[in-house]
Write a structure and sequence with these properties.
With about 375 residues, the chain is an alpha/beta fold. The chain is built from 12 helices and 17 strands. It has 2 domains: about 1-80, no CATH class; about 90-370, 4-Layer Sandwich (Purple Acid Phosphatase, chain A, domain 2), CATH 3.60.21.10. The termini are far apart. Residues about 5-10 and about 10-25 have low confidence and may be disordered.
């Protein structure tokens, strides 16, 4: 009798384990590739449409990698290339600059926006000539195509460079969060993938990964022409500390792969830069009330004078449309991508020969006045 009971328990446990594995597979969707450098070889991990994890080691890197969204849409190809740090300051602004932020794992919204404004063509290739695309952070979390969006911008950067144009990628707060192992906003499939592989998800974007190496070369703050770009904002304390922008970019990248605790332990400066008053978290350029420590007019003017700029353009804080603050000195471009796309509202900012336009998924919606301070 005892043997029979044990056998039944064993069968139930085996069934539960099998069901758990099946549930994990069913919860996965197309993902990757995650490319890890292992000495002279490459480890490439991807997930198929059936939820099967493919884990392959190559002695020599394939010429191309095929990528598509989690449902098999928007296929494109990527080839690996050397990664290098971009300059953070370019005073010679091109004729047109297209500014977007916070795609948060929604490749369909990225494609719709860029295609609808002539940044890419029908085949998803760069079509913006010698002009400039700026993405102000936060590719990770909330959606199912974070990895694919990284690869899409990786591809566009190369194509833009070949055409004499430029793609600038800036760090948001969600890139450092994921690199530090903070997955509180991650879609469950990424946690499942890491569990199935027996590693931490952050290891797939570590310093030995192709995407990790690339993201570690992004800046936090950039200046193009008369505009400064930063994910969240510049606070009064940032103004007081007067840390050179080049140092901000260098130091925040240097500790990108460390935990939040390790970053804070490095120095008071890094604790500040990665904290609530730092450039990837501060909301006081666009939100009022004591909680946000909104910047004072004279402090904002001091920052504009110090960096010889006219505007600060930010993402991070979600609004129902592209918004201007402080009489146009601050412009916020982060919106709910899926909802704004569906409702035909503003999705991004186009600067065309010094004129500023709110654009949607079908082109220009309206011009905004930013010249009267």
């Amino acid at each position: 009798m005892k043997t029979k009971v044990l056998f039944i328990l064993w069968v139930l446990l085996l069934g539960a384990a099998t069901l758990g594995a099946q549930t994990a597979r069913d919860s996965l969707s197309i993902d990757g590739p995650y490319i890890l450098h292992c000495g002279d070889s490459l480890r490439v991990i991807s997930v198929t449409a059936e939820g099967e994890i493919i884990d392959t080691t190559y002695a020599q890197a394939p010429e191309i990698f095929k990528v598509c969204d989690h449902e098999g849409n928007y296929p494109f190809e990527v080839s690996l290339r050397p990664v290098k740090r971009q300059e953070w300051c370019d005073r010679e602004a091109p004729e047109r600059v297209f500014v977007m932020s916070d795609p948060h794992g929604k490749l369909d919204c990225v494609i719709s926006l860029l295609k609808g404004n002539g940044i890419i063509d029908e085949d998803l290739h760069w079509a913006f000539g010698s002009d400039h695309l700026v993405m102000i952070g936060d590719i990770f979390d909330r959606g199912d195509d974070a990895t694919q969006i990284f690869w899409f911008f990786y591809k566009l950067l190369q194509e833009a460079s070949d055409a004499g144009g430029r793609v600038t990628m800036l760090l948001g707060n969600h890139e450092p969060m994921e690199f530090a192992g903070d997955m509180r906003y991650a879609t469950p499939k990424y946690k499942i993938l890491a569990r199935e592989l027996g590693i931490a998800y952050r290891d797939l974007f570590g310093p030995d990964s192709e995407l990790g190496r690339w993201v570690a070369n992004w800046n936090v703050i950039g200046i193009i022409g008369r505009n400064l770009y930063v994910h969240a904002g510049l606070s009064g304390e940032f103004c007081e500390r007067n840390i050179p922008i080049e140092e901000v970019n260098r130091e925040m990248s240097r500790v990108l792969f460390k935990s939040g605790k390790e970053r804070r332990a490095e120095s008071d400066e890094l604790g500040f830069l990665y904290g609530g008053q730092g450039p990837i978290w501060y909301r006081g350029l666009v939100l009022k009330g004591p909680k946000w420590a909104p910047i004072k007019n004279d402090t904002l003017n001091l920052l504009l004078s110090r960096y010889d700029i006219d505007h600060i353009i930010v993402g991070h804080t979600i609004f129902n449309d592209v918004r201007r603050f402080y009489n146009g000195r601050v412009i916020a471009v982060n919106v709910d991508n899926a909802r704004n796309r569906a409702k035909g509202r503003g999705r991004a900012l186009l600067i065309d020969h010094g004129r500023y336009y709110v654009v949607g998924d079908k082109g220009i919606l309206r011009r905004i006045n930013v010249s009267q301070f």
